[in-house]
Every structure is written in structure tokens, then in C-alpha cells.
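Duplicate of #3305? Posting structure anyway:
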């Protein structure tokens, strides 16, 4: 008998209009929000069942995400979520500081009141999720905060580049809770970002965003270092 499809809870059913695009967008959201973990094995059949679609649009989306280096196709039916080495994570962080810092500066000059409200709500949701120990909700709220900020820059080409990096960076956030929860020497840097935006101060907004990336990710950098050292120690000579 054929193996039963595995029930997946990190993707949702999609509508029928523009089916291929909706499947792709749902998988991208799962990656952005850290709903998939690095190294996780996926099956097209399981994804199709979870999204209540045929396998064809799922296969097309998986191939596209493999081209974008978010997924790995190691064989005809072997699909895994790509991870990052510590070296890769640090290199991408260096790039993110420049690109996301630029977006933060631009957003400070163009932010609309509705965007400020959305940022407040996302940050409140993040704080509540962390307090409740809900890692899934925390990662979703964090992505909502950052994506709202970068979209407010009104620079669609820049946003597209940032999203391409977050496709690979998002799954790494599954390591944040509980082992590498972001910590800060003072208050949460998201509050400083919002203050910079309200003041229409590009320099302050960029500085707060860069501090968020450096301070908020410090525990993850340390964890990745320990994981790589442990892997090297346990590898036979």
C-alpha cells in the first residue's frame, strides 16, 4: 500500500485563483516566518495535501524556491529546507546591515501613519508571543515588523532583494526559541526603530535597525558556533 501523506501544520490551504502563485506565496511565507526548520525534509505529496491542491503547482513552487537557494533538491524526490553555516549567516548579516539599513533610512522619510500602527501592533504581538513562549507566533510577528518596515521604504527593487535573503535567513529563526532568544542591553530595539520613524530621523532609524540585527542576533551567532564546534568534535577523524 502507498505510504499515507504526512499531515503538515506549517502551510495552509490556498485559494484557486492564480493557484501556482498562491502556492509559491504560502511556501515563501512559511520560510520568511520560520515555520520550516533547516534540514527539514519535505514531500511534494504532503505539501499538496496540506494546501489542498494538486502536486503540479507545488512542484513548480519547490523548483523555483530551489533556484532561490531556500530549498535543496538533492534527488528526484528529496527536498530539504536549506540552512546556513555560521560563516554564511555572518556574511548575509553584513549584507543585511547595508540593505536593510538603507530601507530603514528611506522608510523614515516616507512612513505613513498606518504603517506606524502596523509596526506597533507587530511589536506588541512579538512581546506577547515571547512572554507566552509561543515561538511560532514570535517569529511571525518579527517578520511582520521587519517586512512592514522595509515595504514602507517604497523601494520595490530593494524589497525584492531583502526578501530573497530572508528566504534563506527565516528558517534559521527556528533556533531562536528557547535556545537563542534575542536579548538587548536596554529596551527592545524595535521601540527605538519606531521612535526614529516617528521623528522622521533616517540616521536614528538606521542605527536602531542595525543594533537590532547585531544585538538581537548575537545569541543565535553564539548558538551556531557551538553547534558547529559540537559537530566537528563528534565527526570521526
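Output from current build:
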Amino acid at each position: 500500500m502507498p505510504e499515507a501523506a504526512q499531515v503538515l501544520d506549517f502551510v495552509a490551504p490556498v485559494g484557486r485563483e492564480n493557484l501556482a502563485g498562491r502556492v509559491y506565496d504560502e511556501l515563501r511565507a512559511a520560510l520568511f516566518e520560520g515555520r520550516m526548520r533547516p534540514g527539514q525534509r519535505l514531500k511534494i505529496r504532503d505539501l499538496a495535501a496540506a494546501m489542498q491542491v494538486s502536486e503540479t503547482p507545488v512542484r513548480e513552487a519547490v523548483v523555483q524556491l530551489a533556484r532561490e537557494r531556500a530549498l535543496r533538491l538533492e534527488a528526484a524526490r528529496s527536498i530539504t529546507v536549506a540552512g546556513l553555516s555560521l560563516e554564511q549567516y555572518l556574511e548575509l548579516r553584513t549584507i543585511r546591515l547595508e540593505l536593510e539599513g538603507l530601507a530603514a533610512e528611506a522608510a523614515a522619510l516616507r512612513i505613513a501613519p498606518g504603517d506606524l500602527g502596523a509596526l506597533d501592533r507587530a511589536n506588541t504581538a512579538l512581546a506577547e508571543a515571547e512572554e507566552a513562549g509561543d515561538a511560532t507566533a514570535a517569529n511571525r510577528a518579527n517578520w511582520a515588523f521587519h517586512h512592514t518596515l522595509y515595504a514602507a521604504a517604497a523601494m520595490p527593487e530593494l524589497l525584492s532583494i531583502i526578501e530573497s535573503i530572508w528566504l534563506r535567513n527565516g528558517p534559521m529563526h527556528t533556533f531562536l526559541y528557547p535556545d537563542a532568544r534575542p536579548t538587548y542591553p536596554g529596551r527592545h530595539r524595535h521601540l527605538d526603530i519606531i521612535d526614529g520613524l516617528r521623528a522622521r530621523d533616517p540616521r536614528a532609524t538606521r542605527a536602531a535597525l542595525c543594533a537590532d540585527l547585531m544585538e538581537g542576533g548575537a545569541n543565535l551567532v553564539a548558538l551556531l558556533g557551538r553547534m558547529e564546534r559540537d559537530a566537528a568534535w563528534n565527526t570521526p577523524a
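Confirmed duplicate; merging threads. The radius of gyration is 19 Å. The first strand starts at residue 41 and ends at 42.
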